[in-house]
Amino acid sequence: AAIADTASNERPEDRAWLADKDHFIHPYTDFTTFQQEGSQVIREASGVTVTDTGGKAYLDAIAGLWCMNLGHGRTEIADAMGEQARKMAYFNTFGHSTNVPASLLAAEVAKRAPGSLNHVFYSTGGSTANDTAVRLIHYYFNRLGRHAKKKIISRNDGYHGSTYFASALTGIHGVHLGFDRISQDLVHHVSAANLYRRPAGMDEAQFCDYLVDELRQRIHQLGAENVAAFIAEPVMGAGGVLVAPAGYHRRVAQLCRENEILYIADEVVTGFGRLGHWFASEDRFGHVPDVIVSAKGISSGYCPLGATLFSDAIHEVIAVPQAPGGVLSHGFTYSGHPVSCAAALATIDIIERENILSHVREVGPYMQTRLKELLRHEVVGDVRGDHLMAGIELVKDRERRINFAPDSGATHKVFVAARQRGVIVRPVGNVIVLSPPLVISKAEIDIIVDTLHETMSEVGPALMAS
Ligand code: PMP
After folding, report:
1. Mutation probe of ligand 1 site: the residue of 159, 167, 270, 337 with most atoms within 8 A of C-beta
2. What are phi and psi of 424, to 5 degrees?
3. Do residues 328 and 319 touch, judged by C-beta distance below 8 A?
4. Which residues of the chain have pLDDT under 50?
5. 297 & 435 share domain
6. Which of 50, 291, 343, 465 has the fewest Cβ atoms nearer than 10 Å?
7. In angstroms, what is the span from residue 446 Cα to ligand 1's centroid?
């Protein structure tokens, strides 16, 4: 293949920009701006700071991508990975073989999971962990002889990943543009629990009733005997950081139980501390799901890892001895990868030793309170979130809650202006998302909020006038 001629004595990081532009198809990328600007090449990172190849440092207010929970440059995690890689980098876990970190991690995760979620299936990230959840739930109902019980109810604006099936679970409209959807009749979406955009005249409690009623009707319409599971993030992330009305998850879980529908909590973002607990479902929202999906923070982003946790009741059905020759035929080459699991064990150890969960419970509410100040800017319609995940929704008409046109690039402009000031935030649709490393201090939160004030003051009036 043809490649650009770059001087051989250039440093790799100088060659990277061109190599990237010419050969690397980036995920989730607007190729108009990509062609114009190319990539920012991040060279190194430490704590909450990342540095690009130009030597400019930035406060990483998104923890890489909701994942670098313990911050960058943790030598303990790197050492644990290195040690494991030197000792035994990989051997498969199919059938009867295992490795030390994967086995120990399964027990450590089970110990911290709610209810009887005692059994872990490993994968490579959030998408494959969600695929695993659905595939094994289908297998579960097949084994019970309930072959019709297959449909999955998901939510508009939910994000569950990018494999073909996880993308079908995803309810964000923009994610599907230009693509096909598989499983049209297998996956059904109900409304997002979007308090900011609830029907006019409803208070929070009425909106909760409305959402639960909608789900009840949908179950009735599809037939409970045909519905296998409901899937939801405890707090929606990529869909715009949406916190459900009080009691929503508990009531939905109850409705699911009444209809023998399994509740899958997608805790890829909320698990491992972002909301101040190991898992948010029980400790924040008061219910125990049948399945929990985890990734990202489980290894603090240091190595790819997904984990799908199943209850005793499901495990009893899927992991009983089969008819002779029968095998649970699901798994990935890298299920239980020793280096990823070593990173996760080191992560759990640090979370515990440094009291990260109580730190999040202290600084999380501080960040939410300070961010509310941004409502003083006319361009800010809503500020919401929970602990260390937050969303700032931009509007051109605050009264009527009307967003900017998609081609206005409003959130991209805020992202660029904040980055110039040394803070990296994330534009997602009409929302600026924040998910800093859990080790962030109040002083660093002040820097983020002060920078956003300056950014909104600079960019806001121009956007309003456009
Ligand atoms: N579920 C949720 C809630 C997520 O936020 C993400 C990723 N942002 C995924 C699933 C998919 O995870 P991955 O990109 O690791 O496949």
Report:
1. 159
2. -100, 115
3. yes
4. none
5. no
6. 465
7. 28
Please say whether the beta carbons of 245 and 193 come within 8 A: yes
Domain enclosing residue 411, as ranges: 40-73+356-465
- DSSP assigned state of 404: P
| Cβ count within 10 A of residue 297 | 28
Same domain, 61 and 80: no
The answer to whether the predicted template modeling score (pTM) of the entire model surpasses 0.80 is yes
Give which of 443, 446, 277 is closest to 361, Cα–Cα: 277
Q: How far apart are CA 443 and CA 458, in angstroms?
A: 23
Ligand 1 centroid from CA 159, angstroms: 7
Residue 160 CA to residue 137 CA, distance in Å, equals 16
Asked, for residue 10, whether it belongs to a domain, the answer is no
Query: What CATH number is attached to the domain comprising 176?
Result: 3.40.640.10
CA dist list (Å): 92 to 95, 281, 337: 9, 32, 8
Residue 460 half-sphere exposure toward CB, CA atoms < 13 A: 20
The per-residue pLDDT for 335 is: 98
User: Is 7 within a domain?
Assistant: no
State the DSSP H helix or E strand holding residue 254, giving kind and residue range, or none if neither.
helix 248-258
Q: How far apart are CA 142 and CA 136, in angstroms?
A: 10
Q: Which atom of ligand 1 is nearest to the CA of 66?
A: 8
Give Cβ neighbours of residue 400 (< 8 Å, ≥ 6 apart): none
What is the model's pLDDT at position 5? 62
- The answer to whether residue 1 sits within a structural domain is no
State pLDDT tens for residues 454-464: 999 999 999 99
For the Cβ of 233 lying below 6 angstroms from any atom of ligand 1, the answer is: yes
Partners of 156 in beta bridges: none
Which is the closest atom of ligand 1 to the Cα of 233?
3
